[in-house]
Amino acid sequence: MAIGRIKQRKTTMNKLFLLLGFMLVTPYALSQSATDNEIMLNQSGDTLTLTIDQVGYGNKICGSLNSDICATDWTLTGSTLTINIDMIGNSNKIYGPTILDSSDIDLTFTGDSNVWDWNIGYIGSADSSNMLVDFTGDSNSIDLDWGYAASAERLDFDFDIIGDSNVFNIDLESDDITWDVDITGDSNNVVTDIKDGAYHSLTLDHTGSNADIDIFMQSGTCPTGVSSCKSVIDITSDSENATITINQKDTGDS
After folding, report:
1. Under a CB-based contact definition with an 8 Å cutoff, are residues 173 and 196 in contact?
2. DSSP structure class, residue 222
């Protein structure tokens, strides 16, 4: 078992690099590895560079969980953060609340049955950020909440999925969102709720059979001097037996 635990609070330049690798080579190791590598992080401060590489089976970046161990931490707060996380293997998990402004997030999952469950800006703001997320593998799960009812402005989000039977529930609440999604694979299920903005843009390129895609997009309160808010959905789909449902509306319209 390898466990990494970091608690850091600092208001000046922070740099944090973590590398956890655990290569599994025997059937016994595979059966024992569900609680192998854990990172528990409590970080407060600006201008953080965070790099995490986890390799193996059953790795976790917490906060939360319980019977599957960890149980809380991963509380990340600050502005101008640079976050780069690579998780390579199966049944890996990332959980936790995050507050950030003017930040860059680069997240890569390679493997099957992985879980990413983040809320960003549930308390505090989540402004002017860029996010690049890549999933390669099958039966992965995402539950992402960005912004909630707190202040959130300008999100640029690139999301690439390669694999089958993945389930993604993504809620984005921000003034301005540009979201580019590329999905390749069969039997993927995507539900997204995009709202509270003057301008939203969703570009979806989908290839694969038996997809179930639900899109809800609602504009928010227009800024002073802007007479109308605008949202754009651009979808290209090459699929058999797909179901795509779109609900797009202005604030106050049913």
Report:
1. yes
2. P
